[in-house]
């Protein structure tokens, strides 16, 4: 029977574990939040849309290696303990994030820039692969049996709060430095700041004690000698790994990354919202929705984990396309009537293209509307000595929404993150309860990081890639998360049991 942990102790455990995990998520997500700017620094100036796709591919690489980190650090966690393993992952994550902030641009070192950043992203992915399973296991093994969903849900908030922190620091840094300085060199500050946060977290984690369940197991000489073999060669245990992956974490992953990362990418790169506006919308949505991680985690202690998670998947399947169609419709300024315009301010720039006799003439007209909205109408001409003026390309960028539409978008983002809290709030308790103590770190980490890291983490890259294909529409990319969530919903409905308050001592 699990011993009761004093209430003040469990909150110290949650606080210390959550702070470190939040910082790791912050480190991991700064890159995605700055993908457009980073792409312009890592690749040639004339790379165009391919720079964003290549940058998202580097971002996705960190997700692809997360399962390998789960195997490496999960094994260590089951051999030497939870505490020292996620101390190591924190140091690896913090160091690689700091170094990304120091990498020179493409103009300075050429293609060595994206290669070095790719290597550091891989280290980040490996570290995160070992962090989450350790933190969730550590908290679960301290939590009382009838409140495991509630206490582990605090760890679940850290992924979204890490994104919130990264967005907040980026917006503050940009507003303090100004757009030009931020795009030039200021984007490095959020990466460099990471090292301070990591040092504080390491200091706090050094004061933590080992999980009581693992300590007991170690004292009794029952620690697994080969966690990988015990996890995956055991037929019954491997079956649970596969069920956790295909029936839960795969669908949970695509809901998580669609509602937060793809939403941000879509608003910025497809709807062309203003940099700050797109991030303010996400910040408000995250702020309103984050408490629901704990609400759904606690509720899962009473009604079970399964149907809360599967309901979140179902709602995403039903509502994603209408939500993103609304984003498109409400940011379509192509049919603005002249009577709605208060002012127009044109700015003309001509830039000679390096190595050619061509120049780019850009006419940017800032248009302010009566309802408070504004946007930049950008007309680009390529002027060639040999061919004359080529056909102009017209774009609408840096859109600032009228106040009612802004809050409408906040509500739509809030709803998507509410679905994230439904699928994510109970899942740590769900995974912990599937596996025995001696192989828990390894067994739960692998399905989590394949489902969440690979299937979920690839959402921005795959969805953006699909939407770039000939004949596709801006909504075509949504078929990837909708398809994965549908498959997971079917498997989970048929095969998952509605676990609640399982004994995890064995």
TrEMBL record:
Signal peptide: none annotated. It comes from Pedobacter changchengzhani. It holds the Pfam family Sugar_tr. InterPro entries: MFS_dom, MFS_sugar_transport-like, MFS_trans_sf, Sugar_transporter_CS. GO terms for cellular component: plasma membrane. PANTHER family: MAJOR FACILITATOR SUPERFAMILY TRANSPORTER (PTHR43045:SF7), SHIKIMATE TRANSPORTER (PTHR43045). PROSITE patterns: MFS (PS50850), SUGAR_TRANSPORT_2 (PS00217). The chain crosses the membrane at residues 51-73, 85-103, 109-129, 150-173, 185-206, 240-259, 279-300, 307-324, 405-432, 453-472, 478-496. Residues 13-500 form the Major facilitator superfamily (MFS) profile domain. The keyword Metal-binding does not apply. It is found in: Cell membrane. It is a multi-pass membrane protein. GO terms for molecular function: transmembrane transporter activity. The keyword Transport applies. Keywords: Cell membrane, Membrane, Transmembrane, Transmembrane helix, Transport. This is MFS transporter. Gene3D superfamilies: MFS general substrate transporter like domains.
